[in-house]
Every structure is written in structure tokens, then in C-alpha cells.
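This follows on from our talk about sequence and fold. Go ahead and set the record down below:
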Amino acid sequence: MAFTFHLPVPDQETQPFWDAAAQGRLVYQHCDKCGNNYHYPRARCPRCWSDSVQWRDASGRGTVYTYTVVHENPMPPFRDRVPYAIGIVELEEGPRLMTALIDTPVDQIEVGMPVEVSFETEGEGDRAIAVYRFRRAG
């Protein structure tokens, strides 16, 4: 049985996020009631449950909060990418995002490393989608 790489499928709550990514912009949500900045996209603030939320542009800068290096993954398309690093990046604005850490040798990645967003296209044709990754800043 062949493995299919499943790309995200935008829905009503996430469509603004994916539209921004297609434009090379990283966005997060902000709660007007309690001031919480958060990610992943959802209709209500996870802190106070207010539906008074708006999208804001992120600076695209952050730091590595934690990470792990994957040395083995037999599933396509990942098997051709090992070793690779997956991490949690804390944006300057506060939200933390899970992401691939790219363009830096895995033995040079460290907690606290400054990073910046980069977008790559995954998939083909009408199924192509811009996804964010982070690389060492500078």
C-alpha cells in the first residue's frame, strides 16, 4: 500500500492563515478581550473563550524553544530528508509554532537560537500549498 503525504486542507477557521502564507506572510490570532496572542487558528480565544479575535501579521522572527532531530523515518517523502529537525519556535509576539528547522546543520541547532520564517511550496497543481519553515536568522 502506497503512503500518501497529506497536506493541510484549509477550512473556514484556517483559510485566512493559508491565504496569508500564500502571500509569504505569517499570521497569528489576537484576542481583543484579554490580549492573548495565539496559534493554531480557532474561532475563540483559548484563554478567555471570547470570539472577539483578529488576525495579525507576525514579524516572522522568533527563537527555538525546543527541538528534536529525526534520524530515521521510512515514510515518503520524509525518508529522503533525514536527518531533519522539528522544533517549537516561540515568535517575538508570543505564540509557539511547531515547524521544520531548515538550512542549518542539525548539530548546530540549539535552544534559544534566533530564527526567521521561510515559506516553501508543498504539493503540486491545485493541491499546492505554502507552508512555513524556520531557518537561522541572518
